[in-house]
Specification:
This protein is an alpha/beta fold and about 475 residues long. It folds into four domains: about 120 residues, Rossmann fold (3-Layer(aba) Sandwich), CATH 3.40.50.2300; about 160 residues, Rossmann fold (3-Layer(aba) Sandwich), CATH 3.40.50; about 70 residues, Orthogonal Bundle (Helicase, Ruva Protein, domain 3); about 55 residues, Orthogonal Bundle (Arc Repressor Mutant, subunit A), CATH 1.10.10.60. It contains 19 helices and 14 strands. A five-stranded parallel β-sheet has the order 2-1-3-4-5, sandwiched between helices. A five-stranded parallel β-sheet has the order 7-8-11-6-12. Strands 9-10 form a two-stranded antiparallel sheet. Helix 1 links the parallel strand 1 and strand 2.
C-alpha cells in the first residue's frame, strides 16, 4: 500500500502542480484548498504525511497544525512558508511539525523534503514493529508458545485447556465455571479463535452488569417505538454475533423471564426484538460463564433446569490460582513483559524475595488480581527490579497489634471470630439463616461479595433475606397478640 499524502494550499494552481509532482512519485495524493476542509478529511481518513501552507484564508496555520496533531498525533507534517514568515515556521516546528520549506522552491527541493519525511515515517513504523515482535517473543518465552493467549503448566489447568481445544472446532454450547478472575473470558476468546467461526465476530455481554429492564433490549434488539425513548431500531447482541460467538458472562444473573427467551434461541436460533413481531434468526455459538455453581442455583430455583442442561453441553471448571501455584512465576513474567511495553518502563525483572511473596500469596482475586498487582508494580517501581515495596499491603500477613506473652492471643481471637459454630439440633433453615446473616456481617453488608463467598447467586441472597424479614415480621406480630 503506497503512502498517503494530504496537501493543503489555497493557491489552486500551485496545489495542482504539487499533486502532479507527488503522483509521479507513486504517492496516493489528495489536495484541498482550505484548512477546515482538511480537518474534516483527516477525521475520516488516514494519511501518512501532510504538506500544509502556513498562510490559509480560513484558519491560522499554527492553529491548524495543533488541531491536526490532536486528531492524528503520529502523522508527520511539513510546513510551506514564505520568506517573511520563517519565524512562524520555527514556531510550527516547536508545535510538532517535522520540517518546513520556504516558497518559492524548486521541484527537487520539495521532493527531497518529502522523501526525508517518508524515511522518518518508515523508521518509526519499523521500530514499532520490532517492539511488537520483541513483546511477542517475550510472551512466547514466558509459556504461551502456542500463541493461544493462555499460560499454564499445572495438570489441572492443562486438563481444562485440552478439553477446551478439543471442543473449540465443534458447534457445541460451552459453559465455563470458576471463581471471578480465573480467566473465563480468556478461555472463551481462545475457543472462538480456534473454531470455524474465528472469522466472525466475538460479542461479549455481562448479564450481571445490565439492569433488568435493559438486558432484554441489549440481547435481542429493539424496534423503533417499542417504548418511550426508542427513537430508532437497534440491533441486539444476538444479531451482531451472527456467524460468530456470543459470550454471556455472569449468566446466572439473567432474570427468569429472559431465561425462557434464551432457551428458545439455543434450541431454534429464533427470537423477536423488543416491540417486534417479526421472527429473527441468529446463527451464533453461545459460550456462557458464571462464578456461581449453576447446579446449586437450579436447586435453589434461581435458574431454569432445562436451560442449565442446554448450556452445559460441554462444561469446564477453571481452577483457581491457589490450586495452580506453579503457574504463578510464568504468569508474572508474562504480565511483566506486557506492562513494561505498555508503560514504557525499563524493568529487568522481579527480585527473588518479591517473587517468593507472589508465590506464597493465595490470590483470592485469582489471575486478574495477579495481573493488576504486576501492572501496579511496573508503574510504581523506581529501580530496575520489582521489589516488595512495589506491592500493595494486601500481599503481606497482617501483624497483630497486641499479643500475649506467648504471642498467640490475638490469633486465637481472630480464629474464633472467623468460625461459624452450629449447635446440635439446630434446623437446616436456622443454620442457613445464621450463615447468611453472619457472612453479611463479615462483608459489611456487601450482598455481591456475600453471594460469592457462599457460592450462590446474588439474587438468592436477596430472596433469602426477604424470607428472613418476612419470618421476623410474623414472629413480631405473633408476640404482639394477647
Amino acid at each position: 500500500m503506497s503512502p498517503r499524502l494530504l496537501i493543503i494550499d489555497d493557491d489552486t494552481s500551485h496545489l495542482a502542480s504539487l499533486i502532479k509532482i507527488f503522483k509521479k512519485m507513486k504517492l496516493d495524493t489528495v489536495g484541498v484548498p482550505r484548512g477546515r476542509e482538511a480537518l474534516a478529511l483527516i477525521q475520516k481518513q488516514e494519511f501518512t504525511l501532510i504538506l500544509s501552507d502556513l498562510m490559509l484564508p480560513d484558519i491560522d496555520g499554527i492553529e491548524l497544525l495543533a488541531q491536526m496533531k490532536e486528531l492524528r498525533p503520529h502523522v508527520e507534517v511539513v510546513i510551506m512558508t514564505a520568506y517573511g514568515t520563517i519565524e512562524r515556521a520555527v514556531e510550527a516546528m516547536r508545535g510538532g511539525a517535522y520540517d518546513f520549506i520556504t516558497k518559492p522552491f524548486r521541484r527537487a527541493e520539495i521532493e527531497r523534503v518529502i522523501e526525508r519525511a517518508l524515511e522518518r515515517v518508515s523508521l518509526i513504523q519499523e521500530n514499532q514493529a520490532l517492539k511488537r515482535q520483541l513483546a511477542e517473543a517475550r510472551v512466547a518465552a514466558s509459556g504461551d508458545s502456542a500463541g493461544r493467549g493462555v499460560i499454564g503448566y499445572t495438570p489441572a489447568f492443562q486438563k481444562v485447556l485440552d478439553i477446551a481445544l478439543q471442543a473449540a472446532p465443534s458447534q457445541a454450547t460451552i459453559l465455563l465455571q470458576g471463581e471471578s478472575g480465573t480467566g473465563k473470558e480468556v478461555f472463551a476468546r481462545l475457543i472462538h479463535r480456534q473454531s470455524s467461526r474465528s472469522d466472525g465476530p466475538f460479542i461479549a455481554v455481562n448479564c450481571g452488569a445490565l439492569p433488568e429492564g435493559i438486558i432484554e433490549a441489549e440481547l435481542f434488539g429493539v424496534e423503533k417505538g417499542a417504548f418511550t425513548g426508542a427513537s430508532r431500531k437497534k440491533e441486539g447482541r444476538f444479531g451482531r454475533a451472527h456467524q460468530g460467538t456470543l459470550f454471556l458472562d455472569e449468566v446466572a444473573e439473567m432474570p427468569p423471564q429472559l431465561q425462557v427467551k434464551l432457551l428458545r434461541v439455543l434450541q431454534s436460533g429464533e427470537y423477536e426484538a423488543v416491540g417486534g413481531t417479526t421472527t429473527l434468526r441468529s446463527d451464533c455459538r453461545v459460550i456462557a460463564a458464571t462464578n456461581v455453581n449453576l447446579a446449586d442455583a437450579v436447586r435453589e430455583g434461581d435458574f431454569r433446569e432445562d436451560l442449565y442442561y442446554r448450556l452445559k453441553v460441554i462444561s469446564l471448571t477453571l481452577p483457581p490460582l491457589r490450586e495452580r501455584a506453579d503457574d504463578i512465576p510464568p504468569l508474572c513474567e508474562h504480565f511483566l513483559q506486557r506492562y513494561v511495553v505498555k508503560h514504557q518502563r525499563d524493568i529487568r525483572g522481579i527480585s527473588p524475595q518479591a517473587q517468593q511473596t507472589l508465590n506464597s500469596y493465595l490470590w483470592p482475586g485469582n489471575v486478574r488480581e495477579l495481573e493488576n498487582t504486576i501492572e501496579r508494580a511496573v508503574v510504581l517501581c523506581q529501580g530496575e527490579m520489582i521489589d516488595l515495596v512495589d506491592f500493595p499491603s494486601e500481599l503481606f500477613p497482617k501483624e497483630s497489634s497486641s499479643r500475649g506473652s506467648d504471642g498467640a492471643g490475638d490469633e486465637e481471637s481472630n480464629d474464633e471470630q472467623s468460625l461459624f459454630s452450629v449447635p446440635f439440633g439446630m434446623s437446616l433453615q436456622e443454620v442457613e439463616r445464621r450463615l447468611i446473616l453472619q457472612t453479611l456481617e463479615f462483608t459489611e453488608g456487601d450482598k455481591h461479595r456475600t453471594a460469592h463467598l457462599l457460592g450462590i447467586a446474588t439474587r438468592t441472597v436477596y430472596r433469602k433475606l426477604a424470607l428472613i424479614e418476612d419470618v421476623s415480621h410474623d414472629l413480631t406480630d405473633q408476640m404482639k397478640k394477647p
